[in-house]
Design brief:
- This protein has strands at residues 4-7, 10-13, 18-24, 33-39, 46-51, 55-57, 65-70, 75-80, 89-96, 104-105, 109-114.
- By secondary structure, the chain is mainly β.
- Strands 2, 4, 5, 6, 9, 10 and 11 form a seven-stranded mixed beta sheet that branches. Strands 1-3-8-7 form a four-stranded antiparallel beta sheet, with no helix packed on it.
- A hairpin with a 3-residue loop joins strand 5 and strand 6.
Length: 115
Amino acid sequence: QVPLVESGGGLVQAGGSLRLSCAASGRTSSDYYMGWFRRAPGKEREFVAAIRLNKYYASSVEGRFTISRDNTKNTVYLQMNILKPEDTAVYYCASGSTYPPREYWGQGTQVTVSS
């Protein structure tokens, strides 16, 4: 079990920025892919970004979002810039041994972007 705890969600105006954090305990995150998914109202959960040795992004966020990790803190971050109303969703941290990571999930954090 790899408990994941997200933080950093909130309400922001369009064009603004937020940074999400995900702290992992148990097995060190450097062994695993770490990533982010999101679920918008009325839609299915979708992949946003992932990292292990390389970084991976959904086309809808590439150039605006940046994923990074601090292995000393077992934490992965998602820096979200130039936010759009369509980025409004519950964001979930995920980890796993394969890409995209789907084995373990956090409880989610709400991101709301107002127009």
